[in-house]
Amino acid sequence: VQLVESGGGLVQPGGSLILSCVASGFAFSRYDMNWYRQAPGKERELVASMAAYTDTIYYVASVKGRFTISRDNAKNAVYLQMNSLKLEDTAMYYCHAKNWAYDYWGRGTQVAVSS
After folding, report:
1. Which residue among 53, 59, 69, 87 is least crowded, i.e. fewest CB within 10 A of its CB?
2. Rg from Cα positions in the chain
3. CA–CA gap between residue 102 and residue 73 (Å, rounded)
4. Please, are residues 19 and 77 in contact by the beta-carbon 8 Å criterion?
5. Which of 7, 6, 3, 22 is CA-nearest to residue 73?
């Protein structure tokens, strides 16, 4: 099982990034897919999620209207489009897959928002 994130980097406030997560080794379409983030000294928080089958979407309040989660089951991939980035979006971003029995984590991709 692998979840491999990419797309992180250094961006100025107001900028945009697209994070990607490519999965392998499990039935991707049957899993809820989530993006978490963890900033230094803070707990890991759920940023966005997209449910399997229903595509029900959740966003944490702080990113609503700025971030968009999407998934492509044919490519075993989930994405996080991040617009209007703020300093407080700086964190390690993790891809997470979950169903009723199992959950898997990627190693993360670093996002740094700085002027």
Report:
1. 53
2. 13
3. 18
4. no
5. 22
> How do beta strands 91-98 and 32-38 pair?
antiparallel
Q: Is 26 exposed, middle or buried (0-12, 13-18, 19+ CB in 10 A)?
A: middle
Residue recorded with tokens 């999965």: 23
Residue 63: phi and psi, rounded to 5, are -115, -5
Do 36 and 47 contact (CB within 8 A), yes or no? yes
Query: What's the CA dihedral at 9, 93, 56, 32 to 10 degrees?
Result: 130
Per-residue pLDDT tens listing for the chain (115 residues): 999 999 999 999 999 999 999 999 999 999 999 999 999 999 999 999 999 988 899 999 999 999 999 999 999 999 999 999 999 999 999 999 999 999 999 999 999 999 9
